[in-house]
Amino acid sequence: MIEPMLQVEDISVHYGRLAAVRGVSLTVGRGEIVCLVGPNGAGKSTTLLTIAGVLAPTQGTVTFDRSPTAGLSPEAVVRLGISMVPEGRRVFSSLTVEENLRLGTYGRSDRRAVERELARIYDEFPILAERCSMRAAKLSGGEQQQLAISRALLTGAKLLLVDEPSLGLAPIIVERVYDILRDLREKRGVTLLIVEESTERAVDVADRVYVLRRGLIELEGTSEDLADGERLHEAYFGFGAAGTSQETQQ
Amino acid sequence: MMDQALRWRSFLRLHATPFVLSLLLIIIVLVAAIAQNSSLDRTIVDLLIRVVFVVGLYIFVGNSGVVSFGHAAFMMIGAYATAWQDCCSMVKSFFMPALPKLMLETTVPPPIATVTSGLFAALIGLLVGAAIMRLSGIGASIATFAVLVVFNVVYSNWESLTSGTSTMTGIPAFTDHWVALIAAVAAIFIAYLYKISRFGLMLRTSREDEVAAKASGVNVVLQRLIAFVLSAFFAGLAGGLYAHFLGTITVAAFYLDLTFITLAMLVIGGINSLSGAVIGVISISALIEVLRQLERGIDIGFTTIAVPGGTQEIGLGVAMVLILIFRQRGITGNQEITWPFSRFMDKPGNALATFRARRLAQLVCSQRSSPSSAVGRRRHLSRVTKQGGVP
Amino acid sequence: MNSALQFLIDALSVGSLYALAALGVGLVFGVLRLVNFAYGDFITVGSYALIVPSASITAIVFIGNWPWPLLVIASAAIVVIVALICEYLVFRPLRQAPPAVLMIASFGVGYIIQNAIITIYTARPKAIGIWPGLTEAVAIGDLRVPGLQLVTIVVALGLLALLILFLKKSPFGVQMRAAAEDFQMARMLGVRANTVIGTAFVISAFLAAIVSLLFLCQVGVVSFHMGTQLMLIAFIATVIGGMGSLVGAVVGGYTIGIVGTLLQVLLPENVRTFRDAFVFAAVIIILLARPQGLVVTRAARERV
After folding, report:
1. Which of A40, A101, A242, C34 is most buried, judging by how many CB atoms fall within 10 Å of its CB?
2. Does B4 contact A at CB distance below 8 Å?
3. ipTM of the prediction
4. Which chain B residue lies closest to C279 (C-alpha atoms)?
């Protein structure tokens, strides 16, 4: 049994007295692409933010590469090798593209590696190279997504947390974004934990899928197992594809 | 018969707060009256005047969430407005030559002068507030600080109206502990009525979430203005009472020290609650007295222990900062006192709803999260919430 | 022509002082959303740093006698230390607190510092003469201009240029600009919160010291409340300039300088002491017309 790279054990996260996440456990193995799906308000973003160190769990542990991340600040978690591509991209609109990219590199000591990786980014994403002195606010949605992903990569991350990469983007751009994400795993060996609303896209890109609903994991499985979608739908919506309440049936 | 009694009981429970607070103040006054100690007497009057001021401050700051650094200016405006009305009848034209002839010749009876001072301060509050309430919360706070400084500069320099930086004396004595008590109780009740009124509720929604409040149709600027004017009235009233208490006033007394002390009282008591305002005044006044005694020195027989001068102010500053760091909601936890004391509730005495909410929480937690129970849970949920509503 | 030049120099030198103070306030606000009510007392500390703590009527000048480079560095160092202590003890624990709480806390810190100064030095203002050469007039064409005014303008412009360079080119500057726009996201990219905030406080404190020394040279007297009115003007400058915008802070500072000097010239003799009130009235008018400030940037939103 391969040791998982990321191990989340039984975390609960509260906003005040409201429990957004109640006892979630998941694992991500090295080089895997794992998807976290679920309806709105399920606690998916909350889970990612907790792994990233922005939120603190009220109980449970998060372990990355055998180091516990409890109590670490977001900056420290980044240094461990986890980086986040947040919901809505959140690029710094008043900074240029290049400044955005370099922002994550100031903590790294190996400047030569940084310049090499930056050159590689510019190579793989010619749009960013073209607009490198332009303010990030002027990029289109898809270009901003490329920027957000590249920016996270440049922190030297081994695990990327991607929150709803398809949000607000046209389907054809979403395709491109997912191609990029797949490439990240193929060409660079980056591990990915992706939050996605669409079960179809999740099954398409991921090795394994977790379904989160109302703060709990309802279902877990490989994408082959869940390919037909029926079990996924039940777990996602709380009732079967036929539209009848699973609970009143019993 | 039973029904009437029950209704009275639940009414009192619901609205106990102003009664409890007033009772607290009455007890304090009675203790002072019995003790027959004149310096204690003066401290109590001072305390009651501060209650009027800080309750006024609460009306605006507590409900709007916007900090005001300018209310000391309104107290000053009220104090000097009082002086203009009933000070030094023989020599008024000597001290304040710039007053209109009518005012120079009239001496207004103190009770009326006090109330009109409050109204005058409220008028200034209206003019100032109309200008600054359109600013963002932080911008408005900075603007109130500007108001403080500017009025200080104006009053310090307008010698023909205010004697400038020198003391104005000769204001008749009128404020004794009964007058101050009446004013304080009135302030408490009016503040409470405002709080439970539509206006108070609307303003508090903007405190919680300004955007949502606006989207719900609340005219945030107008509501802030209403609260600002009402609180300026009480600040001015406190000024009038203060003038009739000391008999002398100076511009310097209504500047940063007063601003800080009263703000600290509100914050330490609990910035968002009326009880916090009153409790804050009482506890900090007590603390200041203790520190004042310590500065003077306590005789323990063979020697005197004293702390260095300045400890009072620094101690108060440290206390306020510590409260903000460790217990931001203040002594009262931002909740209102009610009756019986053991039941501090979020909203004044909403006992029945609290009970229902507790039952609901018990039910939800006791069930395992399994599908079969979900239906039963949902049915019960809808039944309970339909009936009473959760607070 | 001459009086126009005189007016310009007057306005610019006053505006420069205000702009520097406004920058000091704006930097910390941008990064921490803190309106630092202790800033006036930082300014005051900058001048009190020059004398030895004592209750005597005359100031015992110590650092104030050093050659000016050392004097500036020492004064700035002391203000920086005070600022960093405040940051560590008070503002750091309150980092997640809402802006209103931060404001009141800084007001409390300012109160403590002010009363500490009164306790140590007494409330009496004390005369300190530093750099007497600057009060002499310098000849420019037909004009005779106090050297201090020219120095103030040059210093301000120089520091502004340095700051722009710092913010645009240096890694710290980029991190600060990112943090001012979206602090949480910056942290998620590895930007150290403490470093950015500490840097902001250091620069802010340095500016406070400079403002303090220039002001002291002008008035010749140190008092426990000398920073209060400067701080107020700095606040107002950031508000009319547009909160969250450093450009706005500078614009606001110079605007108030120009308006103030204008009023000084235009107002009839007997109401001149109320000039500040008129400046305030002018500010109110500006704000009524444009409550969001003169310079509006995307980053100037308040956190909704």
Report:
1. C34
2. no
3. 0.88
4. B150
Boundaries of every domain in chain A: 4-249
| Contacts of the segment B276-279: beta carbons below 8 A, 24+ positions apart | B276/B58, B276/B62, B276/B330, B276/B331, B276/B332, B276/B334, B277/B51, B277/B54, B277/B55, B277/B57, B277/B58, B277/B62, B277/B191, B278/B21, B278/B24, B278/B25, B278/B51, B278/B54, B278/B55, B278/B188, B279/B331, B279/B332, B279/B337
Q: What is the mean pLDDT of residues B54-66?
A: 96
A94 and C190: CB-CB below 8 Å? no
Q: How far is CA C241 from CA A93, A143, B129, B130, C19, in A?
A: 20, 33, 21, 21, 10
- Helix C39-48 / helix C193-219 crossing angle, nearest 10 deg: 60
Partner residue opposite A106 with nearest CB, options C171, C187, C299: C171
Bridging pattern class, strands B298-299 and B304-305: antiparallel
pLDDT average, residue stretch A32-61: 90
Contact at CB, C185 and A137, closer than 8 angstroms: no
Domain count, chain C: 1
C247 within some domain: no
Please name the chains neighbouring C, where neighbouring means 3+ C-beta pairs under 8 angstroms.
Answer: A, B
Distance, in angstroms, between A249 CA and closest chain B CA? 9
Q: Is the pTM for the entire model greater than 0.95?
A: no
Chains touching A (at least 3 CB pairs under 8 A) are B, C
| Structural domain range at position C105 | 15-228
From the number of C-beta atoms within 10 Å of its C-beta (0-12, 13-18, 19+), residue B37 rates as exposed
- pLDDT bracket for residue C98 (50, 70, 90): confident
**Confidence band for B380, pLDDT divided at 50, 70 and 90:** very low
Residue B364 scores a pLDDT above 60: no
List, for residues A47-96, the tens digit of each pLDDT value: 999 999 999 999 999 999 888 888 899 999 999 999 999 998 899 998 99
Q: Least CB-CB distance to B263: which of C104, C225, C239?
A: C104
C288 contacts B321? CB cut-off 8 A: no
pLDDT tens digit string along A115-171?
A: 999 999 999 999 999 999 999 999 998 999 999 999 999 999 999 999 999 888 888
In chain A, residues with a C-beta closer than 8 Å to the C-beta of B374 are 247
Show Cβ contacts of residue B291 under 8 Å, excluding neighbours closer than 6 positions.
B307, B311, B312, B315, B316
Residue A159 pairs in a beta bridge with: A82, A191
Interface of A with B (CB under 8 A): 216, 246-248, 250
Q: What is the rounded average pLDDT of the residues C212-218?
A: 93
Q: Which of C194, C161, B322 is nearest to A75 (CA)?
A: C194
The pLDDT value given to residue B310: 80
Q: How many CB pairs under 8 A join B and C?
A: 119
Does residue B146 sit at the C interface (CB-CB below 8 Å)? yes
Superfamily classification of domain A4-249: P-loop containing nucleotide triphosphate hydrolases (3.40.50.300)
